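new request in #modeling-help
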Amino acid sequence: MAEAASGSTDKSVQVKLVLLGEAAVGKSSVVLRFVSDEFQANKEPTIGAAFLTQKCRLEDRVLRYEIWDTAGQERFHSLAPMYYRNAQAAVVVYDITKASSLEKAKSWVKELQRQANPNIVIALAGNKLDLVQSSSSSSGTPLSESSEDEADDATATPGETPSSSSGEPESLRQVPREEAQAYATEAGLLFFETSAKTGEGVVEIFTEIAKKIPIEHILAATRGSVGRPGAAGRAGGAQEGAVNLEENANKPKDACNC
Amino acid sequence: MQALISVFIDDGDKLKSINAGRTRITFLQRQPLYYACVSSWGEPESVTRSHLEYLHLQILSVVTSAQLKRIFERRGNFDLRRLLGGADTFLTTMLSRLQLDLAMSMSALRCLRLDSGLRNKAAQALVPSGKVSKDILYIILVARGEIITLIRPKKHSVHPADVHILLTTLASPSLSNSPATAMWVPLCLPKWNDSRMVNAYVVNMPYVDDASLSSNAEIDSLPTPTSLDNPDDDSDSHTSTETRTQRKDNVNHNTITLVCISGGSDFDTVRAWCDDAVEKLSYLPSNSSSSLSSTSSTMTVTPNTAAPPIPRPPASSSTLHYLHTHLLHSSYTVSELGIPGLRHFVYKARGLVQVTFPVWEQGQEKDDSEAEMEEEEGEDDERRRIITMYQMVHDAIHAKGVTGQSKEGLKLQYLRTDKESVLGWITQPFELYLTLSRFYPKAPPLVPLMRWRGG
């Protein structure tokens, strides 16, 4: 049904967004959190690419994200240009407990900057933040969260975590926040550390992207079907899967209404 | 294993199987890969071999045979797992289907039992037109792993094995559990072309009842979705999670999946076409009830699966809604046929390569002693045992004359054990397999069954 509404009558601004990153870093989990506010442990690997949509409200505009969540396996790499070719935004995800995944993220960023739309907004997201946090904000212990993604991903298997992990959860971290932040600044990317499991930082990615997207530009390109703010909040809450910011109580106040 | 197989290759021979008591180890060589299966179910060797063959095809659907050849020519010790990343879920799904799926055992397809008028209507909505049609190879509408309709170019048939590869891919958790509205899945259909990838655009259409459908559409067109300034946010988010969990429960059972296989890689065109097709299926015609009323006895697409009259949804329903409603009534049990002594059957229309069979039932029409006896074994064991017997009979009536004097082989075989008896019968137009109560007299109830399937 969401598909059916994508016609010309839709007054929201469509933003094509692509997710890229190494296998098993949690791309699909980040999207699932954003689109349905859910989390699934042991999520199966994505095959090819999956298409999802979610609306996001920024000040007086409604953005409709059309998200291509791509598979991270190397054999799907050659398909990626098809998804980022016309994308206005990209989220490149890595796993903060796996250093090599940041290297892969960097190579994706390079590819995007070289071959994608020159105005593309790129966000770098270090996922699995819950694995390195003490249990203050998340419900489970880090040990039980370890298999967030595929079991074949050696970084997050319970076996690697000493059973006394509650003492030193930070030891799982392989990518220091400062290092990734420095790289992101240098490369001109938005930067976030996220946890698809707890939801931390996920909505913020899409909010910040929404702020940075040259909306006027998109509108001009799609021959001016200007999004006009309608009667605010009219029955809109029943829209299935729409993001409800009230649930993120710890969010900074100045974030956009997404 | 390599050594074992090489010993025979050196002699210009092929290692096919090793028997060790009740256990048989079967080998299949598909260069550059070797497959092996250890089984003690007692199924015929040809069956195990076909299972391994299916496994091979499933691997080819991920890595084309041209790719395989190239890689192993370059590096003989290549670890194939590197290329199969993320694909183990296909292989495990394939394995579990192979063991219990009767359509695969019979090398045929299982079609959803459906009113043929409705089936035609759905098919008409899906026939591609315009410039997209030369790009599209097949269009398949599937529910619960059964085919609703399949659209293909004229003079171009679809190999059942390719359809099973596709069904397995769809059934694997990577696709069936995905929350995505659509997916773009590159795969190879090896029987069509084993060195070329095609793309499957997959759209899941979960069951939504009419009321929520229209209200959702309304909301969708509103310029402002949920937002902070909505005072009812809390209750709203609550309702939406509830519908979501509900949807999840039904997702595998009542989802209808549209698959569009295209050779080209221009997914925007394919996507636009599929969106149109979904809209056509969901379109609410003003006079829809008239076209569907009198068709339940004409059987064009699947002759053997005309559905009985079922409660119709309100007259103003879309084709998609009709399909979803039919889905709830499409399976049948053998006791509905009311044929004494018949416990299960499989009917294959050979020309159409289609099968139909009733759902497996628990404790169906058994005598007390039988029921007692089967309490000891699980339901799965019973199913497994009967499937193995079907396979044995299937193997026997399909066997080519060993000595070459008769090409025809057996026409009819009757196997009797202390638990039940199984009969297989092959003719030009059909194959029929029956499972009968062990107390049933020798003459099988063919006549009433033939009458049922004819009418």
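bot summary: Residues 51 and 180 of chain A are 28 Å apart (CA to CA).
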